[in-house]
Design a protein that fits this description.
Distance between the termini: 107 Å
Helix content: 40-55%
Order of helices and strands: HHHHHHEHEHEHEHEHEHEEH
Number of helices: 13
Strand content: 5-15%
């Protein structure tokens, strides 16, 4: 009898539990999830950018077009047994095609002509060696390091200036990545408020690199954005402000007047302008020299970033800018990645032109 009641009680308990489960399901209650171990998912790389900045590319590998102009001329000269008028014609044509400009070409070739007349240079091979040496010497004395003063106690401000399309905003982003890789803290000030995509572009790069960013509304006063960026950096103890600036305006204000204002306002904030980098597209050739004059007068340019050098046969603009304006080329664009914005090395550059 007792055994019978035990079995009845067990059966009732099973029915009761089953009824509760059915009732829960009928009311739409979610079943209790049983956690299962999940393998960690690796973070997806952003646009295949490396975690650290790679070594800069070889000038020789990236200057194929400019190298072709010079290599053709020098090969023709070296095939001759003597130095004659055709020798000078070939060299002059190559230098003008490479966009050294008339003044620089004459300044390089005229002294060599005199040395040939004096018999200091007697054969084509010696002439090419002398030309290569003189070209390197013209570029070797400039101070090319980026100006960063760690002793300031306030943010260093690097203003980026240049016309739209030269690669200014992209250069800001690449320099930010490089400086962060060096261990510096960086804030980007998106001061090119008249180009709709500029702010979004920098915000994407800020996410990639871990830089801070300050943006303004589209069409906002660029000076106020830069000022706010510097103040924000100072308050947060950030070492370097990279300020993008307008490359064109949609108002009646002159661009150069606007850039003068940006510099004045930036220096009223809690930071110091230690670098003004002019971004020039190498493919524009002698037009780049005109731009350099205009921006240098307005903003006290301290260095040039020469972009798209890998896609241009006009690398000779380097000599024109440095010889005629005395502004050092500090960085050159040799491709699309962060590492392809490389410090300018005059020895490698000239050697690459002569196909060495």
């Amino acid at each position: 009898m007792n055994d019978t009641w035990v079995y009845v009680a067990l059966a009732a308990a099973v029915l009761l539990v089953g009824g509760v489960v059915v009732a829960r399901r009928s009311r739409g209650a979610a079943p209790i999830a049983v956690p299962t171990p999940v393998a960690p998912v690796a973070a997806e790389p952003v646009a295949s950018e490396p975690a650290t900045v790679a070594a800069p590319p070889s000038f020789r590998d990236r200057l194929s077009r400019a190298r072709g102009v010079f290599a053709t001329a020098t090969t023709g000269v070296l095939r001759r047994s003597t130095i004659d008028q055709s020798t000078w014609d070939d060299l002059e044509e190559a230098m003008l095609r490479a966009d050294l400009g008339v003044k620089v070409t004459a300044a390089l070739l005229d002294p060599l002509r005199e040395r040939v007349k004096r018999r200091d240079i007697a054969d084509p091979a010696a002439l090419i060696d002398a030309l290569r040496h003189d070209m390197t010497s013209r570029l070797a004395s400039a101070q090319r390091g980026l100006n960063f003063d760690a002793s300031l106690g306030t943010p260093n401000i690097w203003l980026m200036v240049g016309v739209n399309g030269a690669g200014k905003t992209t250069s800001v982003a690449k320099i930010a990545a490089q400086q962060i890789a060096l261990g510096r803290t960086v804030l980007m000030a998106a001061g090119d408020t008249f180009r709709a995509a500029a702010g979004e572009q920098l915000e994407t790069w800020a996410t990639r690199t871990g830089a801070a960013i300050v943006r303004g509304a589209e069409g906002a006063d660029p000076s106020s954005v830069v000022f706010d960026g510097v103040q924000s950096a100072a308050a947060r103890g950030i070492q370097l402000v990279l300020a993008d600036t307008a490359g064109r305006l949609q108002t009646n204000t002159n661009l150069m007047d606007e850039l003068r204002k940006v510099r004045r306002v930036a220096e009223k904030a809690a930071g110091v302008v230690t670098e003004v980098l002019l971004v020039i597209d190498a493919t524009t050739g002698q037009n780049g020299l005109v731009q350099a004059r205009q921006f240098a007068d307005a903003t006290q340019v301290t260095g040039v970033v020469l972009t798209k050098l890998d896609g241009s046969a006009k690398g000779g603009i380097v000599f024109a800018i440095e010889t005629e304006l005395g502004i050092p080329i500090k960085l050159v664009g040799l491709g699309e990645t962060v590492a392809d914005l490389a410090p300018f090395d005059p020895h490698e550059f000239v050697a690459a032109l002569f196909d060495e």
